[in-house]
Amino acid sequence: MGPRIVVLILLGWVMSSPAESGDPPLKVCFVSGSFEYHSDQSLIPFKRHLEARYHAEVTFLSANGNWQDLPGLEALEDCDVALFFTRRLEIDGEQLERIKRYVRSDKPLVGVRTANHGFQKFLEFDKEVFGGNYHGHHGAGITQKISPVPERSDHPILSGVDTLFSKESLYQVSPIAEDCEVLMRGETPSTATEPVVWTRTRNGGRVVYISIGGVSDFENDTFKRLLANSLFWAAGREVARKEVPLVTLERKLPKGSIPLSVRLRMESPDNKGGWMAQTETRALPLAETALLICDMWDRHWCRGATERCQALAERMEPIVELARRRGILIVHAPSETMGFYCDHPARWRAQLAPVVEPEEGPMREEPPLPIDSSDGGCDTDDQPQYQSWTRQNPAIRIDEDDMISDNGREVYNLLAHYGIKHLFVVGVHTNMCVLGRSFGIRRMTRWGLDCILVRDLTDTMYDPKDPPQVSHEEGTDLVVRHIERYWAPSTSSGDLVTALRQR
User: Fold this and answer.
1) Domains of the chain and CATH, by start
2) Is the pTM above the cut of 0.70?
3) How far is 178 from 148, CA to CA, in rounded Å?
4) Per residue in 378-419, pLDDT tens?
């Protein structure tokens, strides 16, 4: 089956041509000065994104690290909508008067994160303009879940926007003004809930406030959709997107193969229940080989797991890059974070492959795993257990020619389309997701893939206080041995690198 081309409208990127609409570009003015949140670092890439993907022109104003000076504010006089992302700037005189004139003339405005205390000499801005009530944070280090209000799901600002996860602390803003319309609410494991996205109309002028806006939020495709929708809605305009380059399934197939040393375990010939390690060399055609990265998240509810995953990601990245250079297909599978990548070409590609019905192999007889993780397996006694991850660990680069999916059928469809037969598996956690996900070793093996676990690029959820009361490293090794016996061979990262470097 050959490559095919599919228009992106099938994937949810609704395109409207500026030439068809006849409207001039949306003139946006970014006002940046939130040093604690690195607003310049976030807004400059977002400016490029907005101008590349939408029919918009952006004027960028920055305080440039100066608390008392914000030059260029005369640009507010002829913009269609302004975006404020400042924090406690101490501007005064004519500059502050320009800010006050703009907001008090009821012109369109979108405020991000610290904009509700953006000007130290105009702190009434929050209540007067946003209808807000900022008075602190619910606590740092806890991921917040931000969900659309069901009754507002058809609001234009929420078009293409689903649940968000942010590592920024949840702002304490309740109660907000009665004339505000809440579109999204945030919650934390402590059951704290607050408005996170709301709108307000003052004398016909539209205002939007969004209480998240960290650097990682601006890298989230769903957040960027939310922010772009807000700018167009505030300005009273239909969202005008530009056409983007089509994603296809075309792939340049690498030539050659790599000789890889793998380890598996066989029952001892005396049938006394023992297992013997056996090493063999296999030739893997590069064109028929992929590497899947399982659940290498940016944060875990267990601190120990987060720290080990970070170290693992830093060791993993150069090996993933080497595999990519040799032409091996890279599959990123950070479960429950697809919204973060909803406009990434690698995510679109995963959704393009034609459906292939896999032949289901028999379920293998498998005893219980050799370690006990029934309490979650955390070795740093963190509670509660909740979704703290927002994305794949950013230490692992995602290329546009890669694939992003957390759906086993999507993964299988693309692997089958490309004729992939051999699948390296790396990531976490060996005793949970690596084995049990819909794209994990059990399922992919039953669907006919030759899975190979890279045994030193994985880790378990295991607390040495639990049976069999061995060290964390020994617990991981026990699970690796279990996989070698019942499901798939393993290799080491060193052997993989050696094989990839051979020509």
Assistant:
1) 25-135+197-234 (3.40.50), 287-357+404-503 (3.40.50.850)
2) yes
3) 19
4) 999 777 899 999 999 999 999 999 999 999 999 999 999 999
Question: What are the residues whose beta carbons fall under 8 Å from the beta carbon of 271, sequence distance 6 or more?
Answer: none
Tokens of 154: 């058809």
- Both structure tokens of 16: 């409207």
How far apart CA 240 and CA 171 sit, in angstroms, is 31
What is the token pair recorded at 429? 């956690």
Within 297-432, residue ranges assigned H as helices are: 303-325, 345-352, 408-417
Given the structure tokens 């979650």, which residue do they identify? Answer: 376
Check if the beta carbon of residue 398 is closer than 8 Å to that of residue 346. yes
What sign does the CA torsion over 356, 357, 362, 367 have? positive
pLDDT tens figures, 73-98: 999 999 999 999 999 999 999 999 99
Q: Is the peptide bond before 259 cis (omega within 30 degrees of 0)?
A: no
Measured CA to CA, the distance from residue 81 to residue 144 in angstroms comes to: 28
Residue 438 near residue 463 (C-beta atoms within 8 A): no
Q: How does DSSP assign 455-470, residue by residue?
A: EEEEE----TTSTT--
Kindly indicate the confidence band of residue 203, based on its pLDDT and cuts at 50, 70 and 90.
confident
Rounded Cα–Cα distance for residues 38 and 407 (Å): 34
